[in-house]
Amino acid sequence: MDSQIDWHAARAALEWQLEMGVTEAISETPINRFEQVAPPPKAGVGPGVAAPTVPVQAAPEADPVAEAEAAARAAPDLMALQAAMAAYPHCELQKGARNLVFCDGVAGARVMIVGEAPGRDEDRIGKPFVGRAGQLLDKMLAAINLGRDREGAQAVYITNVLPWRPPQNRDPKPDEMAMMQPFLKRHIALAKPEVLVVMGNISCQALLGKRGITRLRGQWDEVEGLPVVPMFHPAYLLRNPSAKREAWADLLDLQARLTKKA
């Protein structure tokens, strides 16, 4: 069946549309007729009466640092703190990481070491300092009779500023450090060390608010009421073997401080 109408019928239909007021068949710009549908009038509002304007308030944006502080403060022990960090939703690093790198060593040890952020090996295994830099750290600690696998006064406890690996091992961003700082401070409070060792620029920035490890190393400071000494990161020593002499001097200074406090 031919669905087309003849010329006369088409002309008659067009003339009828013109009589009804149609002036254009197609407009220059598309019109979404659905957006032009007027909303139904509210109850009690008649024609010619303006509806009352109700201000719409946007939902307040979340404060990642404030939420981190509340979550960290609510953690009664290290296990709860780890769970709180795993449930924290605002750090984008978590989406690209394999594991949350929380700690290694003995909780309650006299010495707590704070590194920077996990690398590839740490992300894969889920523990801090397990790659080449970690192997060098173990040798450095063993030289002054300390170790993550030892007990009592010879034990150490290790964590990082960030628990998740940054992409391509880039430096942590300021907002990432800010939102993780409450967890780090709570970590220190729950681990209860006697001495803190901060390794590398990122750790110094997070806990001391300073950068420039070549200037800061070996200079004792105080953080959270604890004595703290900045040291070269083992990864830096692998790239700059000539700095091992200064690192050895800092280790001997740490050993002397521990002996004095014993």
On the 0-100 scale, what is the average pLDDT?
88
Shape: elongated
Beta-strand segment tally: 6
SS content category: alpha/beta
So how many helices?
Answer: 11
Radius of gyration: 33 Å
Q: Could you state the order of secondary-structure elements as H and E?
A: HHHHEEHHEHEHHEEHH
The main sheet orders its strands as 1-3-2-4-6-5
Largest sheet: 6 strands, mixed
**Fraction of residues in helices?**
40-55%
Strand content: 5-15%
Key phrases:
41% helix, 6-stranded mixed β-sheet, 262 residues, 6 strands, alpha/beta
Provide a compact summary of the structure:
With 262 residues, this protein is an alpha/beta fold. The chain has helices spanning 7-19, 64-73, 78-87, 93-96, 120-125, 132-142, 174-191, 201-208, 213-216, 234-239, 244-261; strands at 104-105, 111-115, 156-160, 195-199, 221-223, 226-231.
Topology:
Layout: H1 7-19, H2 64-73, H3 78-87, H4 93-96, E1 104-105, E2 111-115, H5 120-125, H6 132-142, E3 156-160, H7 174-191, E4 195-199, H8 201-208, H9 213-216, E5 221-223, E6 226-231, H10 234-239, H11 244-261
Parallel strand pairs: 2-3, 2-4, 4-6
Antiparallel strand pairs: 1-3, 5-6
Helix pairs in contact: 2-7
Tell me about this structure:
By secondary structure, the chain is an alpha/beta fold. About 40% of the residues lie in helices and about 10% in strands. The protein has eleven helices and six strands. The chain has helices at about 5-20, 65-75, 80-85, 95, 120-125, 130-140, 175-190, 200-210, 215, 235-240, 245-260, and strands at about 105, 110-115, 155-160, 195-200, 220-225, 225-230. It has a six-stranded mixed sheet, with helices on both faces.
